[in-house]
Write a structure and sequence with these properties.
It contains three helices and no strands. Helix 1 runs parallel beside helix 3. It is elongated and about 50 Å long.
Length: 106
Protein backbone atom coordinates (compact mmCIF):
# COMPACT_ATOMS: atom_id res chain seq x y z
CA UNK A 1 0.00 0.00 0.00
CA UNK A 2 1.15 3.50 -0.73
CA UNK A 3 1.02 6.72 1.17
CA UNK A 4 -2.37 7.97 2.26
CA UNK A 5 -3.80 10.52 -0.13
CA UNK A 6 -4.75 14.07 0.81
CA UNK A 7 -8.41 13.11 1.25
CA UNK A 8 -7.87 9.95 3.30
CA UNK A 9 -8.86 9.83 6.94
CA UNK A 10 -6.15 9.05 9.46
CA UNK A 11 -6.59 5.94 11.57
CA UNK A 12 -6.82 7.91 14.82
CA UNK A 13 -9.45 10.31 13.49
CA UNK A 14 -11.47 7.39 12.09
CA UNK A 15 -11.29 5.50 15.39
CA UNK A 16 -12.43 8.59 17.30
CA UNK A 17 -15.29 9.16 14.85
CA UNK A 18 -16.42 5.53 15.12
CA UNK A 19 -16.25 5.59 18.91
CA UNK A 20 -18.16 8.87 18.97
CA UNK A 21 -20.91 7.58 16.70
CA UNK A 22 -21.34 4.26 18.49
CA UNK A 23 -21.04 5.59 22.05
CA UNK A 24 -23.22 8.68 21.54
CA UNK A 25 -25.95 6.55 19.99
CA UNK A 26 -25.48 3.98 22.76
CA UNK A 27 -25.97 6.60 25.45
CA UNK A 28 -29.10 8.01 23.88
CA UNK A 29 -30.53 4.61 22.95
CA UNK A 30 -29.82 3.21 26.40
CA UNK A 31 -31.53 6.13 28.12
CA UNK A 32 -34.57 5.86 25.87
CA UNK A 33 -34.96 2.09 26.22
CA UNK A 34 -34.31 2.22 29.96
CA UNK A 35 -37.01 4.83 30.40
CA UNK A 36 -39.48 3.03 28.15
CA UNK A 37 -39.01 -0.50 29.42
CA UNK A 38 -37.14 -0.64 32.72
CA UNK A 39 -38.80 2.23 34.60
CA UNK A 40 -42.24 2.57 33.06
CA UNK A 41 -44.76 0.33 34.74
CA UNK A 42 -42.21 -1.15 37.15
CA UNK A 43 -40.78 -3.58 34.63
CA UNK A 44 -37.74 -4.43 36.75
CA UNK A 45 -37.34 -7.67 34.78
CA UNK A 46 -36.57 -5.64 31.67
CA UNK A 47 -33.34 -4.19 33.07
CA UNK A 48 -31.35 -7.22 31.93
CA UNK A 49 -33.00 -7.14 28.50
CA UNK A 50 -32.26 -3.41 28.09
CA UNK A 51 -28.63 -3.93 29.12
CA UNK A 52 -28.23 -6.86 26.71
CA UNK A 53 -29.86 -4.89 23.90
CA UNK A 54 -27.48 -1.99 24.38
CA UNK A 55 -24.46 -4.29 24.38
CA UNK A 56 -25.69 -6.01 21.22
CA UNK A 57 -26.10 -2.72 19.36
CA UNK A 58 -22.67 -1.50 20.50
CA UNK A 59 -21.12 -4.79 19.38
CA UNK A 60 -22.96 -4.57 16.04
CA UNK A 61 -21.69 -1.04 15.38
CA UNK A 62 -18.12 -1.92 16.29
CA UNK A 63 -18.19 -5.17 14.30
CA UNK A 64 -19.46 -3.32 11.24
CA UNK A 65 -16.66 -0.79 11.66
CA UNK A 66 -14.02 -3.51 11.95
CA UNK A 67 -15.30 -5.32 8.85
CA UNK A 68 -15.57 -2.05 6.92
CA UNK A 69 -12.04 -1.09 7.92
CA UNK A 70 -10.60 -4.47 6.96
CA UNK A 71 -12.42 -4.74 3.64
CA UNK A 72 -12.47 -1.13 2.51
CA UNK A 73 -11.03 1.87 4.35
CA UNK A 74 -11.35 3.96 7.52
CA UNK A 75 -13.84 6.21 5.70
CA UNK A 76 -16.06 3.24 4.87
CA UNK A 77 -15.70 1.95 8.43
CA UNK A 78 -17.20 5.19 9.74
CA UNK A 79 -20.14 4.88 7.35
CA UNK A 80 -20.68 1.20 8.17
CA UNK A 81 -20.60 1.91 11.91
CA UNK A 82 -23.13 4.72 11.52
CA UNK A 83 -25.41 2.58 9.36
CA UNK A 84 -25.26 -0.47 11.65
CA UNK A 85 -25.82 1.64 14.75
CA UNK A 86 -28.66 3.54 13.10
CA UNK A 87 -30.39 0.29 12.14
CA UNK A 88 -29.50 -1.48 15.39
CA UNK A 89 -31.31 0.84 17.78
CA UNK A 90 -34.75 0.69 16.14
CA UNK A 91 -34.42 -3.10 15.90
CA UNK A 92 -33.43 -3.26 19.58
CA UNK A 93 -36.35 -1.02 20.51
CA UNK A 94 -38.83 -3.25 18.69
CA UNK A 95 -37.28 -6.43 20.10
CA UNK A 96 -37.38 -5.06 23.65
CA UNK A 97 -40.97 -3.97 23.19
CA UNK A 98 -41.93 -7.49 22.08
CA UNK A 99 -39.96 -9.09 24.92
CA UNK A 100 -41.67 -6.79 27.44
CA UNK A 101 -44.98 -8.51 26.68
CA UNK A 102 -43.38 -11.88 27.39
CA UNK A 103 -42.26 -10.53 30.77
CA UNK A 104 -45.66 -9.23 31.80
CA UNK A 105 -46.32 -5.84 30.22
CA UNK A 106 -49.99 -5.03 30.03
Amino acid sequence: MGQPGPTSTSALIAAIAIAGIVLLAAGIGYLVTTFLFAFSGGQYRMVTVVNAGALCVIALGLAAAVVGWMIRSPEKAIKWAAFATGIGWPVALIAEWLISFQLGAA
